[in-house]
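User: Second chain of the day. Same drill as before.
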Amino acid sequence: MLVNCAAYQHGRKLADLGVDEISGYLERPDCFVWVALKEPTEAELAALQAEFGLHPLAVEDAQHGHQRPKVDEFDHSLFAVLHLVEPIDGELHVGEVAIFVGANYAVSVRRDVERGFTDVRARCEQEPELLKHGPAYVLYALMDATVDRYFPVLDQIETELEAIEARIFRNEGARGNLEALYELKSKLMVLKHAINPLLESLSRLYGGRVPALCVPLQDYFRDVADHLVRLNLSIDGARDTIITAISVNLSMITIQETEVTKRLAGYGALIAVPTMIAGVYGMNFRAMPELDWRYGYPFSLLIMLVIDLWVFRRLRRAKWL
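Assistant: Same format as last time:
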């Protein structure tokens, strides 16, 4: 459906438009039209393709979705695909926004995500000195907003990671900690898949051979790239921390198992002493020590108790019990 459609000239909004009014504004000098769509039908995209002359390959990618983040250049236009990452009920939901940019138009197509870019449009309209650069600034603003939305997601992941680390050293829920760490690792991979391809593609919008549309805004696209580099480094750092936390968690499990084994061995030693003495007296020999002594039985029990107490003290000193 059509979310918004407006015409701008010299950085200022002229009017909200219907699709049938776009042609008249495209003919005006220094004027461009910004269209925002959500889950458009084939007919809606076909109408805009005819209106703006969108490249058919780019339209096909926008229609079907599930594209890798990228920036493609077609003759005198650009086509970008960005991943929108939203945390929903503890999971990361991934949507897409496809952006068509030409000399006098900017078209955004949003899929599989609820949060739109109304705030981005409002911010752009409050900055006419920048919006006068035209559709290229719209592309920058949408990219910048998308990348900025990655930071809270990463902050949330890092907060969860710190909580898991604290639980590890409190010896709480070892198996649950492992599952949570692997879940965080997969969330980081979702962010990684959104950031890395975009970082590679964005380099063509600043420095070197830059599309004519983006020449005045190279510093702004470089700033977006710097944010992506920061995110990428933070993700790599968080992944290393997760790998370390998994190793520490496994080590803590091993230590716990060792402590249990030591305790079992200690109690086994305490049981072994009376078992050995009782086993000797259970043999069928005619001449047994103290066999005819009246206090032989209590004496044997006393010997067992004394030896067990001595073994128990030694094990406590060795911290086995």
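The mean pLDDT is 88.

User: Great, on to the next one.
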